[in-house]
Amino acid sequence: MSSGIKVDYPLHSEIVQTLKGAQEKKDFKCLERLLKDLTKENPDAVIELSNDDWMKDPSVQLPPAVLMGLWSLEYKRELTSPLCIAAAQGFTACLLYLLEHGAHPNLSAGGKAALHEACTNSNTECTELLLEHGANPNQLSEDGLAPLHMCRTPQSLRCAKALVRHGANVDLPSEEEEETPLLVAARHGLLHHVQLFLRYGANVNHTSSSGETALGAACLADQQKLVEDQHEEHFQVCRFLLSYGANVHIADNERRTPLHKAARNAQISLVQLLLDHGADINAIDYNGSSPLSNVLQNAILHQEWQPDVVVQTLLNRGSIKLWPQALHKVLTACAAAPKTVEILFNSYTLVPITYKWAEAIPEDIFKLHRSFYDSLFALEYKPRCLQHLCRSALRKQFGKYCYLLIPQLPVPKRLQDYLLLKPEGYIN
Fold first, then answer.
1. What's the gap between Cα 385 and its chain centre?
2. Could you tell me which residues come within 8 angstroms of residue 122 by beta carbon, excluding any fewer than 6 positions away?
3. Bridge partners of 51?
4. Chain centroid, CA 387 distance in Å
5. Euclidean distance between CA atoms 8 and 29, whole angstroms
6. 43: helix, coil or strand?
7. Mean pLDDT over residues 181-196, rounded?
8. Which positions ≥6 away from 306 have C-beta within 8 Å?
9. Which of 186, 187, 325, 360 could bridge to 214 as Cys pair (CB 3.0-4.6 Å)?
């Protein structure tokens, strides 16, 4: 632990203040010169760049996060070394100088070795230089992460290639989460990293301590934080993992399958891909939720990804419908997504609709989608039209093959869409 390491240059020393000043001014020439000067005295010097002295000073203004109890009042120090600074900054010439003057490539002053820093910052030349001078490609940081775990950006691919060429273990799990580099790469949508690790023999179905697989991690990625190109990258990662034998049925410790996660994020392309590879459309997690339940529970959060299309796809491919008495809860959760509500209601032959359900819809939402909800509540205690009853009978006959058989019927495209529950903006 960093707390037990002897510090050669504490925070308030003149050399550290000069280093910090050079960093703040981005005076990299000065910074390199200072690092070289430090090496003449002690190539493995331990430097304290910052600490939490504000915790010990009662007059200091505490950050809001501390006042709210979000930060632990534990004394911590940020320790580093000249080699780590050079590797993090990408100072290749300086790094070579330090190594040639006795700096140890595997020194871990602040919980990370120089190789971790180089990979974190995608500094390929520094990574290769450290490996050539004996850096351990499998060294774990204080957090239990190997250098390959730090390769989390597209720019870090060359670092990852250098690591595996020098013997990095592609199946080395992190200490706490037991996540392999493949799982980390999949979560970040790094297709070329995934391809690299699998070529070097990574176990495509390794499970972490939480039961997560690379496929599940790729499906679970927070889609709201991704741009359109990244959605495509995660899709390509999943497709490649499946081509390498990824098991669509492996559930995590909460019994959530990759399909649960793809449905939760309203990712229609992933949902279809997983179903095409045999995913169980009616798998139930520990909360009693199916993939259909998951997309309904999160429809409002992911409206830009058209959750209604996911609901439509699941119902056309054999998803078990919700208990009719639960539709009141669906209205509460999905009122602002009328297309989703329409598709779900039309999947039932008959549902006893009551105007009391209107209480579940916020007034502003009701006004915004008034024409749709007026058509819904107009059916209070009334039968559905003959056309809908015929649709229900046909869908019951085709069952989980609706998506496959209905498009083959010799009827107009508009009628096919109706049979496949395409929303029309009203219910009759």
1. 45
2. 151, 153, 155, 156, 158, 159
3. 77
4. 44
5. 23
6. coil
7. 97
8. 266, 268
9. 186
Which DSSP string corresponds to 340-361? HHHHHHHTSS-----GGGGGGS
| Alpha helix segments (H runs only) across 178-265 | 181-187, 191-199, 214-220, 228-243, 258-264
- Three-class DSSP category at 51: strand
CA distance 410 to 35: 77
Q: How would you label 328-337 residue by residue, b for 16+ Cβ within 10 Å and e otherwise?
A: eebbebbbbb
> Helices (H), strands (E): how many in the chain?
23, 2
Element (H, E) at 77: strand 77-80
Which amino acid appears at position 258 of this protein? Answer: P
When the pLDDT of each residue in the chain is averaged and rounded to a whole number, the result is 87
Strand partners, 50: 78
Alpha-carbon Rg for the chain, nearest whole angstrom, is 29
306: helix, strand or coil: coil
User: Tokens 């996911």 label which residue?
Assistant: 310
In a 10 Å sphere around its CB, with 0-12 CB exposed, 13-18 middle and 19+ buried, how is residue 196 labelled?
buried
Count of other CB atoms within 10 angstroms of residue 64: 9
Cβ 320 vs Cβ 290: under 8 Å = yes
Nearest one of 345, 356, 360 to 392, comparing CA atoms? 345
Residue 68 has pLDDT above 50, yes or no: no
Q: Token pair of 92, please?
A: 């290749």
**Does the structure show a pLDDT above 50 at 57?**
no
The model's pTM is: 0.85
In DSSP notation, 115-168 reads: HHHHHHTT-HHHHHHHHHTT--TT---TTS--GGGG--SGGGHHHHHHHHHTT-
CB 157 within 8 A of CB 173: no
Q: HSE (CB half, 13 Å, CA atoms) of 331?
A: 23
Backbone angles phi, psi at 317, to 5 degrees: -115, 20
- Residue 128 tokens read as 């290769």
What pLDDT was estimated at residue 120? 95
User: Has residue 73 got a pLDDT over 70?
Assistant: no
Tell me the C-alpha distance between 321 and 69, whole Å.
44
| Banded pLDDT at 388 (limits 50, 70, 90) | very high
CA distances 115 to 53, 79, 80, 195, Å, are 29, 15, 13, 22
At 49, is the secondary structure helix, strand, or coil?
strand
> Is residue 206 within 8 Å of 180, Cβ to Cβ?
yes
Which strand (E) or helix (H) includes residue 404? helix 402-405
Kindly report which listed range (33-37, 94-98, 99-103, 257-261) carries the lowest average pLDDT score.
Answer: 33-37
